[in-house]
Amino acid sequence: AKPTEELPEDLRGKDDSQTEAREILKAIRALPETYKETLVLRLVEGMTGQEIAERTGLAPESVRVNLNRGMKLLRQKLGIVE
C-alpha cells in the first residue's frame, strides 16, 4: 500500500500541493523581470489584464503578450508540454 492510501482523503496530496506551489514560485522567480511581474500580479494577486496594465503603466496588449510569453516560459521551466 502506498503511504498516501492510509491518509484521510482531505489530507492526501497536501504536502504535494505545497511542494508544487514552491516549485512554481521558484520557476516564476527565475523568469525575466518583464514576465515575472505580470505573472505574479495575475497568478498570485489575481489581477485582471486591465488591472495589471493600470498598475504597471503597460498597454493592455503588452500585458497580454507578457502573460502569454511568460506562461510559455513557465511551462517550459516546469516541463509541461502543450
Tag the structure with descriptive keywords.
0% strand, Arc Repressor Mutant, subunit A, mainly alpha
Would you write up a description of this structure?
The chain has 82 residues and is mainly alpha-helical. The chain has one domain (12-78): Arc Repressor Mutant, subunit A (Orthogonal Bundle), CATH 1.10.10. The chain has four helices and no strands. α2 packs across α4 (60-78) and α3 crosses α4. The radius of gyration is 16 Å and the shape is globular.
Topology:
Elements: H1 14-29, H2 33-44, H3 49-56, H4 60-78
Task: Summarize the model shown.
The protein has 82 residues and is mainly α. It contains four helices and no strands. It has helices at residues 14-29, 33-44, 49-56, 60-78.
Structural class: mainly alpha
User: What is the number of strand segments?
Assistant: 0
Backbone shape: globular
CATH topology heading? Arc Repressor Mutant, subunit A
> How much strand?
under 5%
Largest sheet: none
Number of helices: 4
Query: Helical proportion?
Result: 55-70%
Report Rg.
16 Å
Fourth CATH level, the homologous superfamily: Winged helix-like DNA-binding domain superfamily/Winged helix DNA-binding domain
- List the secondary-structure elements in sequence, H or E: HHHH
Mean pLDDT: 84
